[in-house]
Amino acid sequence: MSVSGESRGRSQQMRAKAKELNDAAERSTDPEERRRLKEKARRLQEQSEQEGRMDDRGMDPM
What is the pTM of this model? Predict the structure, then answer.
């Protein structure tokens, strides 16, 4: 697999994990846990988008 393909795969995994965390936050009855999960999901989503932008430019994020 190419570096570009690996980066894309990582981005997809991060987006999937962010969705899982958001889903878990929605199910949580504890407001603090919900906030923590949503914040973690937001950070993962941002990181995924950043890697995607670097990949689109043909830059290696490493």
Answer: 0.75
